[in-house]
UniProtKB/TrEMBL annotation:
Organism this protein belongs to: Serratia marcescens
SUPFAM superfamilies per UniProt: P-loop containing nucleoside triphosphate hydrolases
This protein's name: Chromosome partitioning protein ParA
InterPro entries for the chain: AAA_dom, DNA_Partitioning_ATPase, P-loop_NTPase
Domain AAA, residue spans: 37-232
Taxon lineage: Bacteria, Pseudomonadati, Pseudomonadota, Gammaproteobacteria, Enterobacterales
Amino acid sequence: MQNIKKSRRRGANITPLSKKDQKLLESVKKKGTVTTCFFNNKGGVGKTTLVANLAAELSLSFGSKVLVVDADPQCNLTQYVLTESDTDELYSQENPTTIYSVIRPLSLGKGYESELPIRKSNNFGFDIIVGDPRLALQEDLLAGDWRDARGGGMRGIRTTFVFAELVAKAKELNYDFVFFDMGPSLGAINRAVLLAIEYFVVPMSIDVFSLWAIKNIGNTVSIWKKELETGIKLSEEPGELLELSPVGRLKFLGYVTQQHKERSGYDQTLSAETGEEITTKRKVQAYEDIGAVLPEKVNEHLKELFASPKMNAHLGDIRHLGSLAPKSQTQHVPMISVMGTGNYTRLRKNARELYRGIAQRYLENLKIS
């Protein structure tokens, strides 16, 4: 395992866990390694920021052993976590060890890679398999072998299981949580990831396109699960394959909304109690309307995939945190560790409360799943 170089240690501003949170974490750990991907076929929904900061919260604050896999050929998560010098050093190599190292042997007919290319991120506290733009070159391989997999072909099924094999190795290394960051598409790479894990979380913005994305995700995931299950039954070794595949177990664990940044403008109203004039920020009506129907649409299109009928599907709302997010990216640290005084003190506090709340609801849904 390689350590990501770090010029200086950054404080994580960790808030101690309550006894309730400690018990919650322990109950979830009894499940063994939990695998979750963060997915939306619509881009620009804050997915990568959510993955990195939630994983950091579980690692730094909850003390969990976390592996994050950058399965997006755009490599935004990798650029967030690695410093510029680390990125330059890694990708200047002729054959860097990345997620591409996991899938490349299959395309050469050599079977699965024996070891995972894991690196350690001290700033974020988790381990990472970094992304690689060359992963996009394997889209055709995964798409072609998927056709073979649906008919029970062993080669096609084994190719489709490339990330299931990665997960199996991660479980052998006793990770508490494995997160996958994914690109915004319903392509072959994301299909292979979704069919390899147990849970998925949908980050979304509150707009009409997210409503369409919910419908697309629900329909497509259900079809993929059924097609793979049929392929396994038709294969020569269905028993062996079922041990590796989580087919039939992929469940929706919840969604996280990205809060709308209010437009400038204010409304003046009078207090019913004091008669004093009150100034409030004006709300955007379209945003309010979509936000009101969002829970209903999630229930309509994803209910069959719910991890539990008792769960609260809304894991949290990512508030606008001003310049904290871009500062976090330039410093390559989680939001709770951003260095800065003045307004950053307040923003760090808000980020701590925000991601602690999302982590709690994420764990609560896992507990009852």
